[in-house]
Amino acid sequence: MIYFNNDYAEGCHEAVLNALVRTNAEQTPGYGEDCHCAAAAAKIRKLCGREDVAVHFLVGGTQTNLTVIDAALRPHQGALCAVSGHINVHETGAVEATGHKVLPLPSADGKITAKQVEDYVLAHRADGAFEHIVQPKLVYISNPTEMGTLYNLAELESLSETCHKLGLYLFMDGARLGYGLAASGNDVTMQDIARLCDVFYIGGTKVGLLFGEAVVIGNPALAEDFRYLIKQHGGMLAKGRLLGVQFDAILEDDLYFKIAAHADKLADTMRETFDELQVPYLVPGITNQIFPILPDTVLEELAKQFCFTEMERVDETHRAVRFCTSWATREENVALLCDVLRSLMNR
Amino acid sequence: MIYFNNDYAEGCHEAVLNALVRTNAEQTPGYGEDCHCAAAAAKIRKLCGREDVAVHFLVGGTQTNLTVIDAALRPHQGALCAVSGHINVHETGAVEATGHKVLPLPSADGKITAKQVEDYVLAHRADGAFEHIVQPKLVYISNPTEMGTLYNLAELESLSETCHKLGLYLFMDGARLGYGLAASGNDVTMQDIARLCDVFYIGGTKVGLLFGEAVVIGNPALAEDFRYLIKQHGGMLAKGRLLGVQFDAILEDDLYFKIAAHADKLADTMRETFDELQVPYLVPGITNQIFPILPDTVLEELAKQFCFTEMERVDETHRAVRFCTSWATREENVALLCDVLRSLMNR
Amino acid sequence: MIYFNNDYAEGCHEAVLNALVRTNAEQTPGYGEDCHCAAAAAKIRKLCGREDVAVHFLVGGTQTNLTVIDAALRPHQGALCAVSGHINVHETGAVEATGHKVLPLPSADGKITAKQVEDYVLAHRADGAFEHIVQPKLVYISNPTEMGTLYNLAELESLSETCHKLGLYLFMDGARLGYGLAASGNDVTMQDIARLCDVFYIGGTKVGLLFGEAVVIGNPALAEDFRYLIKQHGGMLAKGRLLGVQFDAILEDDLYFKIAAHADKLADTMRETFDELQVPYLVPGITNQIFPILPDTVLEELAKQFCFTEMERVDETHRAVRFCTSWATREENVALLCDVLRSLMNR
Amino acid sequence: MIYFNNDYAEGCHEAVLNALVRTNAEQTPGYGEDCHCAAAAAKIRKLCGREDVAVHFLVGGTQTNLTVIDAALRPHQGALCAVSGHINVHETGAVEATGHKVLPLPSADGKITAKQVEDYVLAHRADGAFEHIVQPKLVYISNPTEMGTLYNLAELESLSETCHKLGLYLFMDGARLGYGLAASGNDVTMQDIARLCDVFYIGGTKVGLLFGEAVVIGNPALAEDFRYLIKQHGGMLAKGRLLGVQFDAILEDDLYFKIAAHADKLADTMRETFDELQVPYLVPGITNQIFPILPDTVLEELAKQFCFTEMERVDETHRAVRFCTSWATREENVALLCDVLRSLMNR
Questions:
Q1: Full-model pTM
Q2: pLDDT in tens, C147-177
Q3: Do residues A160 and A127 both lie within one domain?
Q4: B-chain residue closest to A83, CA distance
Q5: A74 near C CB under 8 A
Q6: Is A58 exposed, middle or buried, given 0-12, 13-18 or 19+ CB atoms closer than 10 A?
Q7: Residue B346 has what pLDDT?
Q8: Which of A233, A337, C185, D34 is the most buried (most CB within 10 A)?
Q9: Distance (Å) from the C-alpha of residue B285 to the closest C-alpha of chain D?
Q10: Are C158 and C306 contained in the same domain?
Q11: Distance from A99 to chain B by nearest Cα, in Å?
Q12: Is there a contact between C11 and B27 if contact means CB atoms under 8 Å apart?
């Protein structure tokens, strides 16, 4: 079987593994207060073009989302996000478990607009019973989104401006950030994100690490006492250096971006094939996730050789599915998939 | 000004006030362990036709909703309800503050169906990543709903059957239960509710009391240690007898139902006038809330004499509003409203 | 039976009852936004000698404690209090249910000192692993305490100064505040409290009202969005005016202080008798609670005529108990108790 | 510098590292549903002598403690533990953040007794206001404790019997379990623990793994839906196999116990030296933690070559400190420490 069902099926990139092996016998202070975390944080500050951001390393995405949101909100405040946002659908109510309501906004492609945010906030403030309604205080976006789509710079600037005008925080879940930044067609840089978001994270788990997400906090109001919150929510690794070692390795010589570009390029190859075969998409995209709508008969055949993810039934004979590439995807497997697709679709 | 904007503008019914005055100097044990609470609970058990239900008295609706739901759910479980459900929109995230996600189902009229519940639960269980999604465990309904609509017996039986088949609890918010049970056209009795719901409450705040909601728990799994939860959530009144005294008075000689019928009858009078004037409704109903769609010009004139609640803009020249009658509404005020309406609409 | 077991056995003072009856038929806006709440708040601001404080009315003490503390703290912060503090022992973990740890300090008499607070906070900040430990951020005191003791002005000033020097909030639970302020020997005024505490409340439930606690917030950081938190925690009464009407009545012509002084004076009478009989106290005091240590044989006889509260066994033949007077206690009952005591002790 | 300050200063045992390297390129399902987790769980079930226990792998101790306790308790219930228990002092209020009060029991050596538990529970049940007090429902113990002490089999059987007689759960934090089981003088086996505790965990982070704790749930009431809770609390690793691979490796050929015995033996060597030098202990012990009380002058000299942990000042010239050995401690470093100690103490 060849796996295209997600981007976390393998361990980590060789360079990361080597770094773990190389540093294994070192004795370091615990809880992230070691030289490797410091070195990785320095690289991240440089990438962000800001020396004043706080950098913290957490283990996984759900943990990061709940910790950041809990750190940012008072009890009566909630997080706006796309209805398909990860915090709204796939984290077992982790945000609610910290006491905060997720406030979903309609979205077809996983993105939300500055206008949606502004309309929601102004309607809340104009409501005669506003104190009976959760106060929107933070906007959660994923980039790329759960649907593989990307915000462009204009959209991001508009969201940021709107949030700050209204006194809301902008938080970007970058679990797949590498695949977004490396996509051909993307016009957003890490510096842009560090400038426009109050807090965001650079995903490692899906982009070459064993695990790890690097939180970057640009707004000092969110940075205060953040380590207490990491510890309280069980996110503080005793051997915190494991996160520093991994990020330090993957950020060396732009490796993070190179391996993400590899995945995006292979996804582009798949997209070319789908386009050539006139396969429609549930949502079009340019990153490492592809959501084609295919005939049940074709999917049945494909499933004999390839793993992919079921998304939804589109009509009586077609379903939307997801194919994922990753830093570890092999070119020949993509070529094989394309060949099989062509042969199945052209029958 | 004449107030039709809600059903909690006045104090309490004279019989309730008299009972409070009459018992004021008594010395009783605190925290609801007094003879008045016991007497009121006995009346409620009789009304329910079940001696085995637990009865508890709380102060208000939000407090009751959050306490019942927190008592019923484990941390990973959530409450299904109509998207317009009170817990979803007008309780400042009180349920989320106890850690639980509210799971909204689409609804035009404030009601949800057994089929919606079943589809949702089965889809959850069939999901490959079901442990990443909040587990639906309780169905919250209001009867009457926030839109003034009522469940009929068949709908309620179907919901109850579905919930119990699937292992979910059925919880009815009866903040306006009196107005529902007393409505002409209603085919549900208190006994039906006590038989079909795992837990429900009989609203007092909006039906003749100063404050107070009587929780009836038919499912022993939900009754265990319930008083701990009342106390923890700040709902245990030191002078708990105030709740017993009031419920005891309002349940004497069916007073609760008589005063609710009074409000419904006056609402029927209003409805007849709206019908006669061919005024459409946002949602049709038979209880004490009416949601007519009226021209802005008419509303502007009405607002000079009458208080009502804004619901939403329907088109460029019309808005939906809410008129409420209550146990305290005076016949002559309704007659005046109808006269004014006729004169404004027939211009 | 004559009840000395608590100060909430009766309903409310006649003046309060009359005000409720008089205003019962009025139509007012809900949720505390009525003229009675405004009038009561104005009286409280005047009593406090500060026009800039925010005043909110809640129903009961546990509700008030949990709402204030939840409003004040970030998730990793906790509340310091005496080990016998109400929030630590008698609120079913209400504060913990909002996510915050109560940090108990040793105390024999229910009071804590500025030195204890300072030592705790400095030790926390000096700890090498301080981020692994809950951060103390608020000091909760009761005045009078659960042991009936009172802070004097010097102690209160010292606590306030220490808290503010260290960046902590000072919160006073005044569930029995009236009995404290009216005690002969007390040197603290309402203005002192309003000046020294960031937030405190004036207890009504135990001092003449049916129910109600008036929260006074002097620190603007704690006042922001406070009504959202009241609503979220189920403390916002639909007929909020009931709280305004009651406080407005009890604060008219210093009635609150007069009825509290009545209770304190009767307690002084009891204390004179205990002193005369050389009865020791668990903790000495000057307010409406008395904690004598009496022989089991005497208690057995007393219990035939009088209700009191068991505190703890002191030795094989003696127990400490609590006698409470209140605004409603009758002079002849106190006289009777003293007579019976004398006759039992002098046998 | 030679590090004796904790048992998590290095990475992982070579066998574990090799297993991670060997399996790195494998493609496996995510979230712990892979063959390595299955294999490790099978080994653990065998070690426990019970095929019916549920086994789950989490990343760290605080995460595990909060997840297990949250899974076990209803909102009004709390966890009894020693006042020095890790959940009470060093997890930033993680248990309270899930809404539950930690109920500390006095303890000089980190252990609590069956009698303490029974007395506490019976006193709670006998209290007239028991519903105003958090209900004790779970007993949390660490073995070894934070003070390095161990429960013997009789104590553990007594605790287990008492808990089950009273309807409480017994939960053992085994963050250092290996060092306990391997200690000479220990009379408890893994099978005993699996038989006596409702839930416990086998610590990996401090005993040879990079990270990882294996939760073993013997009581089916605690096992239901446990994976939902792991996910909700951010403890579900996308590449869950990392935990399975590591535990599978460390449990092969009793490696876990062998490396723990190595640490205990080196600690025994230290203890022999301390005994020989007549150094007293804060608390005596037999596992990998030693708490000697040493003169300030000696500690000052030691600190030039060795890292250790400050515990507390004992008198004006002596402090208690902690020395830790681990699976990674080298014999020659212990020998050096002993030599230096002898020379400093015999001056």
A1: 0.97
A2: 999 999 999 999 999 999 999 999 999 999 9
A3: yes
A4: B104
A5: yes
A6: buried
A7: 84
A8: A233
A9: 39
A10: no
A11: 4
A12: no
The domain tally of chain B equals 2
- Which is nearest to A106 in space by CA: A92, A95, A117? A117
Each residue of A249-290: pLDDT tens digit? 999 999 999 999 999 999 999 999 999 999 999 999 999 999
D101-114: average pLDDT: 97
**What count of CB pairs under 8 Å joins B to C?**
139
- Residue B182: which CATH number? 3.40.640.10
Q: What is the mean pLDDT of residues D5-20?
A: 96
User: D92 CB near a chain C CB, below 8 Å?
Assistant: yes
CB C292 within 8 A of CB C274: yes
**Which tokens sit at D106?**
């006095």
Q: What is the pLDDT of residue C347?
A: 73
| Domain shared by C59 and C117, yes or no | yes
Q: In which domain, by residue range, is A341 found? A: 2-6+256-345
CA distance B231 to chain D (A): 6
Q: pLDDT for D53-84, tens place per residue?
A: 999 999 999 999 999 999 999 999 999 999 99
- What integer pLDDT is reported at residue A260 of this predicted model? 98
Kindly indicate the confidence band of residue D160, based on its pLDDT and cuts at 50, 70 and 90.
very high
C132 touches chain D (CB under 8 A): yes
Question: Can you give the pLDDT at residue D347?
Answer: 73
Q: Are residues D243 and D180 in the same domain?
A: yes
Best mutation target, B67, B222, B225, to test chain D (most D CBs within 10 A): B225
- Tell me the C-alpha to C-alpha distance, in Å, between residue A291 and each of A111, A177, A186, A288, D300: 16, 18, 19, 10, 65
Q: Are residues C246 and C121 in the same domain?
A: yes
Q: C-chain residues within 8 Å CB-CB of A228?
A: 76, 131, 135
Chain centre to alpha carbon of residue B330: 22
Same domain flag for D136 and D125: yes
Final residue of a domain: which of C234, C255, C276? C255
Same domain? For D208 and D290 the reply is no
- B240/B262 same-domain check: no
pLDDT at B347: 73
Chain B segment 174-233 residues within 8 A of D by beta carbon are 225, 227-229, 231-232
Q: What's the confidence (pLDDT) of residue B203?
A: 98
> Strand C318-324 to strand C293-295: parallel, antiparallel, or no bridges (unpaired)?
antiparallel
Q: Does C21 touch chain D (CB under 8 A)?
A: no
- Give mean pLDDT, residues A80-87: 98
CA–CA separation, C2 and C330 (whole Å)? 10
> Does the ipTM exceed 0.90?
yes
Query: What pLDDT is recorded for position C346?
Result: 85
Domain finish residue from B253, B284, B319: B253
> Which tokens sit at D182?
């391997």
Q: Is D59 on the interface with A (CB under 8 A)?
A: yes
Q: Do D60 and A236 touch (CB under 8 A)?
A: yes
Contacts of residue B225 in chain D, CB cutoff 8 Å?
Answer: 74, 76, 131, 135
Disruptive mutation site among B62, B77, B95, B96 for chain A (greatest number of A CBs within 10 Å): B96
> What confidence tier does A346 reach under pLDDT thresholds 50, 70, 90?
confident
CATH of the domain at D262: 3.90.1150.10
In the block, tokens 């005063």 appear at B259
